[in-house]
């Protein structure tokens, strides 16, 4: 995820949110938000502030692509950050299980 826009899309989709739901969450006009996701506009302080207020532990990830600290998300008082932590851990388990399966399959050959 190279751009802030792509990280915003990832966040929204990981949380199974529609664009309209995300707009309401961060108090952003729908068409403006759509332009942000499509990289037709740059994220302003007006959009970034509410986004970071809602997702405090993701501000560096959203802005710069820094690693996500899942433990901080789990410890957060923000339910959406807790949900995101659970979804990330679920995905990591699936990746680990897939890797173990592939490793066992390759050993049988």
Write the SSE topology:
Elements: H1 4-14, H2 19-26, H3 30-37, H4 45-54, H5 59-64, H6 70-75, H7 79-108
* CATH class identity: Mainly Alpha
The tally of beta strands, per DSSP, is 0
The radius of gyration over CA amounts to: 16 Å
Give the helix proportion (percent range).
over 70%
Based on helices, strands and strand pairing, what is the structural class? mainly alpha
Q: Mean pLDDT, rounded to whole units?
A: 90
Q: How many separate structural domains?
A: 1
Biggest sheet record:
none
Low-confidence stretches: none
Keywords:
109 residues, mainly alpha, 434 Repressor (Amino-terminal Domain), 72% helix, globular
Question: What does this entry look like structurally?
Answer:
The protein is mainly α and 109 residues long. It has one domain (4-108): 434 Repressor (Amino-terminal Domain) (Orthogonal Bundle). The chain has seven helices and no strands. The chain has helices spanning 4-14, 19-26, 30-37, 45-54, 59-64, 70-75, 79-108. The model has no long low-confidence stretch (mean pLDDT 90).
Short synopsis of the structure:
This protein is mainly α and 109 residues long.
